[in-house]
Specification:
heterodimer; A: alpha+beta; Phosphorylase Kinase, domain 1; two-stranded antiparallel sheet; 7 helices; B: mainly alpha; globular
Chain lengths: 258, 209
């Protein structure tokens, strides 16, 4: 019975070449090839492909001697390939461990960088304590002008809250005394606040800071003929640097409840 | 073509101890063609397939004590070759590059990047005057390109069946897939090649070959 369907022709020849036919079927097909040009053509086409595949894939098979010498030479356990006999679970485990190792390493690097960054951040800018009499002398030399003319009690108090953690109030000063303003010249610490006053036409400075920032100060600088009076109260330390014989401002500074 | 299913598996001479180097070498050599095809099927690179098969031999020799005598040596070796080849392809994908050698470059220049056979000249059909038949080599090039379009498992199955003439039982053992799946891969691969070759190579001159 002739075969007309092209797909059937293909399947028949494929089964023939693939060895899926019984001897009887093979004989029958071989007899039909002469009468069916379509079958013969398909056979030629498929044989040609098959021959091409074989021709293209003929490796040079090594000799026995070559194989034996290869096995003899390469006995080192190290291989450039990952061990292929590892199971998929094993490979996943190794991959998982690698990921964990990378994550741990990355965390360590981040921690070190963060620590260094914080360490750098925690470092304060350079600061050097200086004798308060020198700061007084500089202020006088520079015209004894405050950085900040502060005459409102609230802002005065706020300044000390911000810098020393305690609000201060300036009570009424004696006649012939007045407060000029505030300066931040350093001294005991970066946060030392100086109150510039005029007492009997003499410049007087009071340096205020936290007790923890206290530094030993010379009581009197003979060359400058200055006196330094110290008071410590309410967690604060007060130094009045003055050319006068007695402190005239310290008594006017009162720490108030925040 | 006879029925390859009737042939005994090559190199499967039970009773020999593969821990003996000579026995191992002989059985490895007998199975070499199919092992090379397995590697080629996965990698699509003939020279790399040789390296992989050689590497797999060394691995297998180092692990020869794990081989169970009741098992098929070619199937055991095929599995090792396949895994070596898969390792290679995984690394290649990660690297996004392939090692370059002059043969690879020649093949790239020829427009057939991976599968074209460097030995094609040795076995290709020649004319009565000893010249390469141009149409034949052109057809081979088309076959190579069509093969590249197949997946690694279908390609391996097709080559093992068509070139090495393994039975589907053997292909199933080599590729660790069911026999029916192997058969299906071979059939579909052939159909795909036929279609691609028909598209690429349906010229009147072709019919004269």
């Amino acid at each position: 019975m002739p075969i007309d369907d092209p797909q059937e022709i293909i399947d028949t020849i494929e089964a023939y070449l693939d060895g899926r036919m019984s001897p009887l079927e093979r004989e029958s097909l071989e007899n039909r090839l002469d009468q069916s040009p379509e079958l013969a053509e398909e056979l030629t086409r498929q044989e040609r492909l098959q021959e091409s595949l074989r021709r293209l894939h003929a490796p040079a098979i090594p000799s026995l001697d070559d194989v034996e010498s290869m096995l003899q030479e390469d006995l080192s356990p190290a291989s450039s390939f990952q061990d292929p006999l590892l199971t998929r679970d094993g490979r996943r485990l190794i991959q998982g461990l690698r990921i964990v190792a990378v994550a741990v390493a990355a965390s360590l690097v981040c921690a070190i960088v963060a620590w260094q960054w914080r360490h750098v951040d925690a470092r304060v800018p350079f600061f050097e304590t200086r004798p308060l009499v020198n700061l007084y002398d500089e202020a006088v030399t520079n015209g004894f002008r405050p950085y900040y003319d502060c005459h409102e009690p609230e802002r005065f108090a706020d300044t000390f809250i911000r810098r020393q953690g305690r609000p201060l109030r300036l009570t009424a000063m004696a006649e012939g005394s007045r407060m000029l303003g505030l300066s931040y010249p350093g001294g005991l610490s970066r946060d030392t606040t100086a109150i510039l006053c005029e007492v009997d036409d003499e410049p007087v400075m009071v340096f205020v800071d936290r007790e923890s920032a206290d530094q030993i100060q010379p009581k009197m600088d003979r060359e400058l003929e200055l006196r330094v009076f110290r008071e410590q109260r309410d967690g604060l330390v007060f130094y009045e640097v003055t050319p006068l014989d007695a402190p005239r401002v310290l008594a006017c500074l009162v720490a108030v409840q925040p | 073509m006879g029925n390859p299913d009737a042939n005994p598996p090559p190199g499967d001479s039970a009773g020999d101890d593969i821990r003996d180097r000579s026995v191992f070498a002989a059985r490895y050599r007998d199975a070499y063609h199919r092992l090379w095809l397995v590697a080629l099927g996965v990698t699509g690179d003939q020279s790399m397939a040789e390296d992989i098969v050689q590497e797999a031999a060394i691995v297998a020799w180092q692990k020869r004590n794990q081989f169970k005598p009741r098992n098929s040596f070619p199937a055991w070796m095929s599995e090792i070759v396949r895994l070596c080849a898969l390792n290679y392809t995984r690394k290649s994908i990660r690297r996004k590059t392939n090692p370059a050698d002059p043969a690879s470059i020649d093949r790239l220049d020829a427009g057939s990047p991976r599968l074209a056979s460097p030995r094609r000249g040795e076995a290709v059909a020649v004319t009565a005057e000893g010249q390469l038949h141009e149409a034949q080599t052109e057809f081979d090039d088309h076959v190579v390109r069509a093969l590249e379009s197949l997946g690694d498992v279908p390609r391996s199955c097709l080559l093992l069946r068509t070139v090495a003439e393994l039975s589907y039982v053997e292909i199933s053992a080599c590729m660790q897939i069911p026999e029916g799946t192997a058969m299906s891969h071979v059939s579909r691969s052939k159909a795909r090649l036929r279609r691609l070759l028909h598209e690429d190579f349906a010229t009147p001159a072709d019919q004269d070959l």
